[in-house]
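DATA SHEET
Item: assembly model
Revision: 1
Owner: S.N.
Input lines:
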Amino acid sequence: MKTATEPNVNSELISSDLPAIKIKKRKKPRIGQYILTLILGLYTLFCLLPIILVFVIAFSDDESIASNGFSYFPQKLSLKGFQYVFNYGRQLFVSYGVTIFITVAGTALGLLIMSLFAYALSRKDFRLRKFLSIYLMIPMLFSGGQFASYMIFTTMYHMKDSIWLLILPLTVSTMNVIIMRTYIQTSVPNELIDSAHIDGAGEVRTFFQIVFPLMKPVLASVGFMMATAFWNDWQNALLYISSDNKVPLQLLLVRIQKNIEFLLNNKNISSSALVAMQGKIPEYSATMATVLVVIGPIMIAYPFFQKYFIKGLTVGSVKG
Amino acid sequence: MKDFLSNTWKHRVHFIMCIPAVLVLFFFSYMPMAGLVMAFKNFDYNLGIWKSPWVGFENFKFLLASGKTFWRMTFNTLEYYLIFTILGTIFNIALAIAIDQLIFKKIGKAFQSIMIVPVFISYAAVQFIVYAFCSNNGMVNNIISFFGGDPVRWYTSAEYWPYILTIVKMWNSIGYGSVLYMSVLAGIDQQLYEAAVIDGANKRQQILHVTLPSLIPMITIMLLLSVGGIMRSDTGLFYQVTRNSGILYSTTQVIDSYVLNAILTTPDYGFTAATTFYQSAVGLLLILIVNGIVRKAAPENSLF
């Protein structure tokens, strides 16, 4: 972001010996720079290796894992894991659909209602905004917690096993509204909004035709964060969802783990029952193949959104 | 007042724009807050939350009487909060400064992109990765046996889990956490560095006297925001990554994972409600106190 161009911009203003210092520094990167690169490289590797392991195990042969343990260098490669994943395909297919619906609907809805709210809060002459800002801030400082939420949602709203419970509670977050409001205040010129008004555009039209398109960078960064939150949400699903046709991918992962646990811990199951279940015991490579299928889409989408949130994510001033 | 009403009427479209978000917050944030009154009630499923009879502080007596569970989860929650916040802040800043100082900008960008990736993997998936490392025939034990050591049964040895969870948490969050600090570093006026160089400051002195002071407002805000969640934890880390294993509870059970377990089994309503009330109240109290202190010391950095 701050690159070589900056000193040049100022060079006319500052005494002439400054660029000389810069050039001298750039000529020979000191040994420290190489050490720094090495350290950062090692840390990057530390971040990356666990993810690579998922790939390797998904393509490993189960028997070699069972006999030699988990390893980056499996003795035998195999596609059996994936075969298994696609064998219990129907549930996976349904879960994929559920997760995609939650992610798309939740992110779109959330971005829409949060940006409307943020826009209204950014209007300086809107008196009610002081009260609404406080109303927005309080949930960040104090919350009912998961038990009170659970009781309210299930006993009062009777929303147990409703897919909307996976969507609505996550649509509005204080932090995201603040990020959006700050963005509108700093990056959408007031003159533009005023001139739209003078040209006779109503508030709604001004918002959708002028402000909303200009918010693209912040919508991309917040939207990607929200999408991953929806995609990765296992807790609400575990608490509220019971019917199979509403199980999202993350809950499927949790259930797979529970099944393994159950089979491993239950020594009382008769041997004949075990044989009968043999086909159903998810093995390591199959489990990792499932993990790969679950985290895959985010890994693929990430590079496209990456540039936005390295630039666009600033908490901004929290104070209104 | 009349002024205010006419202003609101003038901005009625803005007000309408707020309504959807206000309603979502009301039903999914504010109602649960009101639901905390359950801590003072003897919950009866047939009567519902509002009509159940009041019992005063009865539920809290049970909470304190539970002794070991209560203190254990409080202690663990606070312990992990402190470890994660202190280490996390230090590493976030160190990483941000390191990437910022790197001359090879392209390599730095590439490294940073990879470091952020772990935060996008849910704990439900991370749990399987940790298992591949820590199970009896996992990577770690393979390496230990390779060097002739005795394999460790990680999933039954509670004493190692504070370290394992810390490593997992840092792996998960540092790359992403440093992005915020990076954006502050990018905004530092280059002339400050140039002036420091003219004054004869070396790299270390530049970092100490220019870089770090400019990060302080961001550090304060991030710490303030985290204080409100002091009694809350990353539930996935403690519920999923430990596989919710009872043997490990002594070092891994936090309030949030306890409550989640309570809901999923048959909740003792009064006890659980008292626990969550205590959790929320302590968080609120602390953020008010700390914000008060910050407002005295450095008003521009306070939250409100």
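QC remark: The radius of gyration of chain A is 26 Å.
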